[in-house]
Amino acid sequence: MTASQIGSSTRRFGGYERVTGSQEFVADLRLDGMLFVKLVSIDCARARIVSVDTSAARGLAGVVAVVTSDDLPQPVPRFGPVYKDRPILAVGETKYHGEPVAAVVAESKDVAEVAASLVAIQFEELPAVFTVASALDPLSPLVQEPGLRSAGTLANTNVLSEQVFGWGDLAATEADLVIENDYCFPMVTHFAIEPHGCMVVSSSGGFEVWSPVQHPYLLQAILADLFDLPLTRVRVVAPDPGGAFGGKQNPKFEPLLCFLARMTKRPVRLILTLEESFQATRRTSAEIHIRSGFSRDGLLCFQDIESNFLLGAYADIAGRVVSKSNYLGCGPYCTPVARIRARALLSHTTPSCAFRGFGTPQVAWALESQMDAAARHLGIDGLQIRLMNLAAKGDDVVPGDVPADGEWAQSVRKAASAVGWGEPLAPNHGRGIAVGIKSGATTGLSYSTIRLLFDGSVTIYAGTSDMGQGARTIFAQIVSDELGVPIDQIDVVMGDTSVVPFDLQTSASRSTVFMGNAILDACRDIQLQVRELAAELHGTALENVRIEAGGVFISDMKVSIPEVVQASLGRLRGELIGNGTMRRTDIANHPLGGSPAFFEFNCTAFEVSVDVETGEVSVIKHVSVGDTGKSLNPLQVEMQDEGAAIMGLGHTMMEHIILDESGRIANHGALDYRIPTSKDLPLSLSTYSIENADGPGPYGSKGVSEGAILCTAPAFASAVTEATGVVIRDLPLTPERVWRAMRDGASDSSKVE
Amino acid sequence: MKPFSYQRPGSLAQTFDLLSEYGSSARILAGGTDLIVGLRQQTVDASVLVDIKGIGEFLPGVALVDGHFVIGATTDISRICEYEKFRATFPALVEAMETVGSVQIRNRATLVGNVCNASPAADTVPPLAIYGAMVNVGGRDGTRLVPVQEFIQGPRQTALRPGEFVLSIQLPVPNAPLGVGFARLTRRRGVDLATVNLSCSIDSVGTVRFAFGAVGPRLVLGVDRSGVLADSGAPAGDRDAALANLIAGTSPRTDIRGTRDYRSAMLLVLGRRILAEAASRLGSGQP
Amino acid sequence: MTDALPVVLNINGLKYEFEVLPYRSLLDVLRDELGLTGTKECCAVGECGACTVHFDGRSINACLMLAIEADGGSVTTIEGIAAPGEMTRVQDAFLEHGAVQCGFCIPGMVMSAEYLLARNPHPTEQETREGLSGNLCRCGGYNRMLKAISSVSEESTP
Q: Which CATH number fits domain C89-155: 1.10.150.120, 3.40.50.1000, 3.30.1490.20, 3.40.800.20?
């Protein structure tokens, strides 16, 4: 017997490999005869491609192929996780800065790079759409040809989708105080330290693809569809991503590499530079207009929200980002009346996709800043106004949908006490607090297979991507407890569609709940088999055999699971195989296709000090409290929470993609796009979990990896407001922006009725 | 990177030969922390790199010669910062040097390279100018000394003539009491390029000198001999007016790191702060 | 293109003799030619520190050094920081304190932490932050790294 693993800070699976450099990321893999791919793009966002002269590049020794869209099947295939809108290479026109027009395939990285610089592209820059205003302007050019769009009134606009959510009669609702404001959340980039990349081998009529993709089975399906292959002919090997944060969910260049592998009949490899990764994907930016009504006591009367999210040139999964985040646009509150109009707008910019928080940080920036504006106008404390409006467990947050699933006020009180809410403040110091909820995964399907080997050791098969959240560790902890196996006798196999059963995806903080439940289910399957074997072995009825804490109890006798297995299977040895499933299917007519499996709730609080002459903000205390249900591995929960918090500080204090007049990224790369360093870490950062075992995951757990990024910005901004008296509604709060607000005396300029 | 060839001369004479042979297609390689980035981003073109780290005449580290500290062209910033006497003599320069890149960068980057890179935002340049640094330029026909503020003529432009390269930087040990301050403003606390940087000195007769970086195509210098800036008891309005007078010589621009008006405003704010720092150092007898 | 030049390098205690094209970085050579892929590549401009190695005992960005420049020197990479199958105290502490998430920055981070502690066995928190500031961790593990380094520092006798 082993001590219980659940609830203990078991060391991270794969940790040794990571600290010693032996963990193999995709760029560390080598294939015999491998060719190197370099993408060729042009120096502006939208342009008509006049001509592409590849002769000089082709003439360079070591160049195997230079491919443009003319060399691809016609019409050039398009793909995407929702809409098939992204061409393999640009056709006729580029739609964003960095969209590949050609690809060079060469014997070495250096030759590919030089050859790429020799590809001569004549182009004519065209008018383009880079902003929300321009995307909404009917006179602006269309980003996508109407023929590519699904039929309907929107096909001749740059509106990809528009959804209205709401309840109650807004027109008939009165409020003592109505506050109306506009908020901006800029484009930011994922900046995974591992740049994007992939390798492809074309063989026996199919492909083997190595990609650190978050959804290997989706990539497999998209490639099988593009090349009209059975799924068995597309094997996706997914090495653990070196950071993904949503940016590696969906296929980017894997389809191109498949064509190149097929054309050259050699293995091909593409590793992007960091700058190219900036151009591959980003977070959806947003402009949110919001009217909030309150009673004079501070109770919410209504929210009227108009969100415009600026997507890139291709939809990727960003339409879902917009709908899912706006669906919970009223946050974790009891909101009597709501109208939320959310638009997903196409533009000639980097295709946006999922990014940790999946749109919620954008929405929460506006919503939570409104709560503070109301609190200021009503003379109510920022903590109080939240507590009085917060949904209690069982209260509706969206009427008719699943109610609040946690004791959220506990998190808020914990954060308030940890940040020292209400204690005296030094001059130029301020505190702020904010809350956020994100819908966990709605629908989903995860399978797991577990092999209990003859000696009692276990192999777990799980299609999750272990991208830093430590999924392997959690899965092994569950199995260790359920089957009584020492943790070091457990192997977790992931990342190979030819070996591991299907998992829909690794996203939305789902894996502990979805795959965790599938694994628990597989353990139950094995436990039943063990009980049956034990009953047979001891000539007793099944109900006389029970399994507790990984041990087998036959009436009063206790034996271990391996003892039962070995005694039963005998000389021929063998193993027990358990299968488990977690499935949540579609709900007809639900705006999201299904209800949230759980809510990820977070409360964040800050104490800051502001240098009122320069606008520099120092973070004295940063507190994050998550409603985790049950922290299966407390250390890993803290790691995730701290990580999300620091990432949130990035978009709050310093991160934003700056576009120039041609739609090029002006701060392109590590020198001018700033993310937090060790010196930017708060002076004190602490995270806490509220555990009431009220989640749908194993042992009452919920997903946890996004909570601390949800409301970082509004909590921080609120603290800055308390310290300085100025209110800022555009992110990030750079020193200059804070200084400018103070210089201009930008006190609360809310439109108030 | 685009292909280039590599030479590692063993002597100054060989280096001058290579520079005359290859002309403008040759680039001097010492620390490489700016050069390699430029080559990789194709903002610098070179067909040959001349690595000067094998030149026998260069002394490693920092030498004190005839009242001057001499820092050779291959001495990296971390090494310089290890010299206690140097740290004690040029504290504001050391502060600036310790903001250049990260530990890893400073372990390679040379002070001479930071000057030769001729970036308007180079952090070491304002304090170098304030301490009176001279750039020792070597050519086949001998050497010449050029004040650092004259050596850097504009973005990526130096006073180097064909066939020349920088052998060292000479810093005179102040022969009279001097207090010097340095400050910079960045977008984050970690490694960052400066939005503005500045240095100033106060001497015992009340002369105040300022050097402002990242607010013009080249370093902007200003001198105040009125004594107002040196007098911490003078009315704040008078001091600000005097400082504003010096700042008037700058021409900050708006770019991705900051706007023109923010930069201007910060020169005043940080200018006041480093004046106080310089005065305190002067008072404590530390340069 | 240009001719390859001979290089002699001591890497992790072993002598390597090979020829290298002059425009190849030390990082390229370690990863692509010598198969030492523990050293990672991200930004290629010396900002992220994923490629941190020790050259002649000092931490550097291998992306900003040409392999030919390293001729005659000695390099320690993450593969050579501990004996095979073992971990240094820093590596162990990183795991113990939960400093490792995706792991891509970790080899470079470990090399920076080792360098810091070798020169300054008892750094203040400020010094540790400075010592790690040339290494970016997007998973945001800095707080845990500070704790890990502090625990190693406390273990060693002042």
A: 1.10.150.120
